[in-house]
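Board work, copied verbatim: Two pore domain potassium channel family protein
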Amino acid sequence: MNVTHATHVRREFYKAVWFYFHVVWPILSLLIFLIVLFGLIISYLETWHPLDGIYFAFVTGLTIGYGDFAPKLAISRVLAILLGFNGILMTAIFASISIRAIEIAVRTVDSEK
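↓ predict structure ↓
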């Protein structure tokens, strides 16, 4: 594979990612909104600063889980579990977009030969 071929595949990959990102943007925006909303709810319930709640929600939703914040109330823990599922959905969406974009990029470049 020469440099121009790799550049062409990369360009097709980015075009496909951009296209599919626009397709799933409503779903992703809803998932991000839920992360922020759950973070604000948890911060209210746990009497944390709102930014700490949003930080906790993103760290939990991205399945990182540093452990510097831990909810004590049962309802907050349930919301944290839902944040984890939300993060798994987001990861699955990004992975499927990437895989589909790779397939399209390779197929497009190979069909041009």
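The chain has a mean pLDDT of 94.
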